[in-house]
Amino acid sequence: MKNYDQYKKKIVYKFILGYGGIGDCIKYFIHVLNLCMKYQLRLSYLISNIPLEKYLRLKYAKMYVTAEQINTKEIAARDIPTLINDDNDIYHLVHPLIFFNEFSYETIHSIQDVFVFAEEVKLNRSQLLLPHYTNYLSLHLRLGDKFLETDVAYIQSKEDVRRYNETDVLQFIEENADKIILFFCDNQQYKLKIKNKYKHIIITEGEIGHTGLYNTTDKQVLDTVTEFYIMTESVKIINAVNSGFPIVAAKFKNIPLISL
Question: Which pTM value belongs to this model?
C-alpha cells in the first residue's frame, strides 16, 4: 500500500450476486491482489452495493471505486501480465469466474491484512452465540445447494450435493467430547439433529442463507458473515467436506485446518 498510488495501470475487481459466497469473494480478490503485487498494478474493488459489502470491508478505503469513476474493458486472467505495456488510463475489469481454472488456495495468505469485519458483525456475535466462548473448535459441514432451505427457484446448482463421511464426522465429535465444538452447517434440520444427539455440540442462532443468492435476506447475510467471523476466531477449524467457507476462514488468521 505504500506504493499503491504510484501504480498507473489499473485492475478493477467486480463481484456481484451470482458470483459466489463470502469465501469466493475473498479468495479471488486475494488471488488478483497477488497478481497485481507481482506486476505492480493498482487493484481496486468495484462497489456493487450487494449486502455482503456492508459487513465485509476492505481495510484500505482507497481501494474502492464506483461505476461512475471508471470506464472499463474486461480482460481474461491470462492477459494480466500484458498490462505492463497497456494504456495507463483504462481500468481493466476482472471478475472471479475467469480465475476458476487457475486458482489455488495455496496462494491465499494474510487475509486479515486486507479484509476487516464491520462493527455490526462483531455486535451480532453476541446475538448468535452466548456465552462468549473462547478456545473452541469449529466443525463445518456443507451439504450442498440441494439442501439449502430456501426457494429452489433461486438456487443455481439444484443438484449440488457434497460428499462426506458421516461416520468420520460423528467419530470426531465423540473423540472430542471434552472440547468446546461449534457446529456449522448449511441445513438447519441437520444442525439440530447433531445438536440433539450430542449435548456438548454448540450451534448458533443464526439464520442460514447463501450470500450469493438473490433471495437471501439482509439478516441472513449478516448472520452468515457473523458465523464466518466466529470461525476465524477458532483455535482450529475442521472441514468435514470440500467447501471454501471453512478453508478461507482458516486462512483469515492462518489458524490450523483439518479435513476429515
Answer: 0.89
